[in-house]
Task: inverse folding
């Protein structure tokens, strides 16, 4: 019989939404609240701290009243300079299962909320600096198992690639649970601007359901030539003008074109010897990346939708906020930095 | 002594503005009005035709009252389905100095206004359909001389490449005055969306003057790797976060990055054996393209700023609207299509 006692509350608190999870032994999701307000909405009010505190009470109050000692952990933009408290970054390479040098906490009416730091890549030579905040937690939950680190038996430190599509898609390389490299691609944000605000938006019409043939046609363009976005995108307009593309197919065509350009380039010049990738996204977007990766000769698997809940649990274990026995603080004490 | 009698009124009537030219013998600019309202503003009023007619009177009324018989010719989006009258397209290849099969005219209080058709490329195989409207006239004015067509002596039918940077940059291949190919790149529109509305816009600050070093740094990125926009653009944010790029340098850095990606790709995979190009743009934007083309090993010359006035004159001559003697209708009669 499974132990259903709550052990942890985990919050995936991003720019546009907050997802709260009540987690039991081994990170099992006992309950969830997915519609919380994100950093953008909460920072528009006058008193930022009070707005975050109210949202926490709104989402997790009932859970905490029944379980007053539950530890609280959060990841995402809540820890950015736009968020509740600035949680800093850890420099690559980072073992996601190791404890950071310091951990940021913010005092709440329910006790301290631990905020997971982001990851920072310095970038040398041709490589740019880059940042991740929130995805590192999804990432840890997306890994099929969570063996500790790259050390120890080499069988445990498998190299892997994880793609996290979204507004700012992250392409991440790992060895075991150690993040060794990542790159941000702005495909998602550009797709939004193009299909909502550019000249392409003017003739695009909403479709009743996704048009996979149009998406594949976009992939054809991306994989069929030395394509970039700017020089191929106008075709979404001219093909409609020439009667060769339906207005309702425009968005899916552009989606295929843009994801195709991104995936073709990353598979060719960034993935190196990797021919497998894990995709961490909702099923609809994930299947698009899977289709594009297949074209590039890369096998992919879709991580479970609640990967972030698993990641929050695993991080809390690594931080010593919950022990494997489920008792808070079972690990060694950690240095804290309270702003 | 030059003959200063007006022979033609030419209108470069685009999406956002209208430039009117009073032209004398050989297309000399005798007077100009550059601040007229474009198609977008004029079509927002209830009676579209009346709005265009009023704008014409506003810009050219004084010229026409003194010279009531002056022929009128216009190019640009005024001839689109969003404009005053739909002027159709000519299919490639098109000799810009030849008369189209039919010419659209619209009746005005001052007599007929002839509207120059755009160019249409069908697009076969890997090639997309594409359209030009207005740039074909600038193009003709940008050519150093205007020998007729690709036929006749081969010395006259020089192959050439003309770049017309703007919201939708056009890359055009010609043989003499015959347009043989063109491609539209949306770099300009994407640059606007990115620097005004994306996450990059949030940290970009206006600079007092153009930062050429930042522009060149963007070119370095574009030419230094297999770059595309989506996967390199986030660097404009992370370099600022890492203290390696000033917020006032962001826009010029992004400009260099985007123009660099465009020019590198066109020079490599579209220009073929061409190592020279004519740029048709204002001096500020033109010099940026010249810098990028130089990196790609392409020599460039900047066309005169009033290329469009020259193009309107040359087109009017080709259409027989003005004769070389300056008398309207000196050419053979042409078939007209009035909507």
Result:
């Amino acid at each position: 019989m499974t132990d259903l006692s709550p052990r942890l509350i985990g919050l995936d608190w991003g720019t546009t939404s907050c997802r709260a999870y009540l987690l039991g032994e081994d990170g099992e999701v006992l309950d969830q609240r997915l519609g919380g307000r994100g950093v953008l909405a909460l920072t528009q009010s006058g008193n930022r701290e009070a707005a975050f505190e109210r949202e926490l009470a709104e989402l997790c109050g009932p859970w905490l009243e029944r379980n007053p000692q539950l530890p609280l952990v959060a990841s995402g933009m809540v820890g950015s300079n736009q968020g509740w408290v600035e949680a800093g970054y850890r420099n690559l390479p980072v073992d996601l299962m190791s404890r950071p040098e310091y951990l940021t906490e913010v005092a709440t009416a329910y006790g301290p909320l631990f905020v997971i730091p982001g990851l920072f890549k310095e970038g040398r030579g041709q490589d740019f600096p880059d940042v991740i905040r929130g995805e590192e937690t999804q990432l840890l939950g997306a890994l099929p198992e969570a063996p500790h680190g790259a050390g120890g038996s080499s069988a445990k430190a498998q190299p892997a690639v994880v793609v996290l599509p979204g507004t700012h898609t992250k392409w991440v390389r790992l060895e075991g649970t150690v993040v060794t490299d990542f790159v941000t691609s702005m495909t998602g944000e550009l797709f939004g601007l193009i299909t909502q605000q550019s000249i392409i938006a003017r003739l695009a019409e909403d479709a009743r359901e996704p048009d996979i043939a149009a998406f594949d046609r976009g992939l054809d363009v991306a994989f069929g030539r030395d394509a970039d976005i700017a020089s191929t995108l106008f075709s979404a307009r001219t093909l409609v003008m020439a009667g060769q593309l339906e207005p309702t197919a425009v968005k899916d065509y552009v989606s295929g074109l843009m994801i195709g350009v991104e995936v073709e380039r990353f598979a060719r010049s960034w993935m190196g010897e990797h021919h497998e990738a894990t995709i961490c996204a909702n099923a609809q977007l994930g299947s698009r990346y899977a289709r594009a990766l297949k074209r590039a000769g890369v096998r992919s698997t879709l991580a479970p939708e609640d990967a972030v809940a698993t990641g929050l649990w695993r991080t809390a274990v690594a931080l010593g906020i919950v022990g494997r026995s489920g008792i808070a603080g079972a690990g060694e004490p950690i240095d804290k930095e309270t702003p």
In short: Chain B has a mean pLDDT of 89.
